[in-house]
């Protein structure tokens, strides 16, 4: 068992994150960490705008190639802007990759609806992953948010109340994404590309915001996260201090031994000094 999820000693309160709890600073820090874990408000917009541009242009001129190129170029510009701002590579290339795969699907089949098919399959797979991991007691949301809250996997064994919150939140994400899939997949077969595209874009942000909101509700009622990063830093500092103390003690013992040897040296017998030697 690692320091990330080791249980606290009996009679010892589990250390918590200073930003946790019900304080205004704790709530603000938790909200910021939660939003940042999913790309923030900017990330939500960036994942929606390319699809919006695609369906808007396709509605106007019905040209699949032009619509796909416009969406891909816009996504690339958004990713480039992320890089110029020295943002994370995940956020910079995540949207570009998703749009690129959608463009490839649509261009290969000649069907504008296939631009959204990779995202639909990803959403369905994600829904199943949330539900399965929650049922298995290792909620996917805890694996995603643990590093964001600096608790890593400590919630598994040291913070049962927080684990229950992650399980509930993972179920919420799973059922919300599953409901979205239940709407989109029948429309994929029955609706025309234009109507299907607008419905897909309309369902992009609201379900995600609902899932994030429910996650915030569940975590707000749970115990605060255990900051295992601070724990490890404190352990390293304590080990370093102990090593320095041990070195100082050894140096003091060596000095004491040398002093005792000098004080205890035997004196020369009388009459044996240099003046009495002939």
UniProtKB/TrEMBL annotation:
The keyword Translocase is annotated on this UniProt entry: no
Please list every transmembrane segment annotated in the UniProt record, as residue ranges.
43-60, 66-84, 91-108, 120-149, 170-190, 196-219
Map out region (Disordered) in residue numbers. 1-26, 257-278
Q: Which domain of life is it from?
A: Bacteria
A Pfam family cross-referenced in the UniProt record is: DUF3159
Output the InterPro entries linked to this UniProt entry: UCP010219
Q: Where is the composition biased (Low complexity)?
A: 257-270
Cite the entry's keywords alphabetically. Membrane, Transmembrane, Transmembrane helix
Q: What is this protein called?
A: DUF3159 domain-containing protein
Species assigned in the record: Streptomyces gossypii
